[in-house]
Amino acid sequence: MRKFIERHTFWAIVILLVAGIFLWMIFAVWPDWLVSALGRKKTFVNTFLNGLTLAGLYFLVASGFTLVFGLMRNVNLAHGSMYLLGAYIGYEAAEASGNWFVGLGVAFIAIAVTGILLQVLVFRRMEGDDLRQTLVTIGVSIVAADLMLAVWSGTTYQFAPPEWLFGAAELPIISTIRSSGQEVFIKYPVYRLAVLGVAIAVGIALWLFLNRTRIGMMIRAGVNDRDMLAASGVNVQLVFALVFAIGAGLAGFAGVIGGTALSIAPGEDIRYLLASLVVVIVGGMGSVPGAAIGALLIGLAEQFGLAYFPTYGVVLTFLIMVVVLAVRPQGIMGNS
Amino acid sequence: MITDKRTVIAAAVAAMLAGPAMAQDDSVKMGALATLEGAFTVLGEDSMRGVRMALEEFKYTAGGKKIELITGSSDASPDSAIRATRKLVEQDGVQVLVGPLSGSEGLAVKDYAKTQPNVTFLNGSSAAQDTTLRDPAENFFRFGTEGAQWMAGLGEYVYKEKGYRSIAVLAEDYSFPYTQVFGFLEPFCRLGGEAPADARFWVPIGNKDYSSVIAALPDDVDAIYVALGGADAVNFLTQYEQAGGDLPLVGGSITVDQTVLGSKGRTRDFVIGTPSAGPISDTWDDPKWQAFVEAYKTQFPDGFPSPSLFAHAYYINTKAALLALDEVGGDLSDGGKKYREVLSNLSFETPTGMVKLDERRNAIADIFLTEVSEGPDGNLLNKTIKVIPEVSQTLGVSYDEFLKYGPVSRENPKCG
Amino acid sequence: MADLSLIAGKSRLPNIHPAALVAAVFLLFYPAFASNFFIFQVGAYTLVLGTIALSLMMLAGYGGMVSLSQLTVAGLAGYLMAILGENSVGVMGLGWPWWLTALTAILAASVFSALIGAISVRTEGIYTIMITLAIAVAFFYFVRQNYVIFNGFTGYAGVEPPVLFGIYWRDPTPFYYLSLAVAAFFFFAVLYGARSTFGLSLQAIRDNPRRMRAIGYDVTLHRIFAYWLAGLIAGTAGVLMVWFNGRISPGSVGVDIVIDILVIAVVGGMRHPIGPFIGALAFVLLENFAIDLIDRERFNTVIGLAFLLVVLFSPDGLLGLWMRIKNALKLKRRTLPESGGGQ
Question: Which CATH fold would you assign to the domain A40-327?
Answer without folding.
Answer: ABC transporter involved in vitamin B12 uptake, BtuC (1.10.3470)
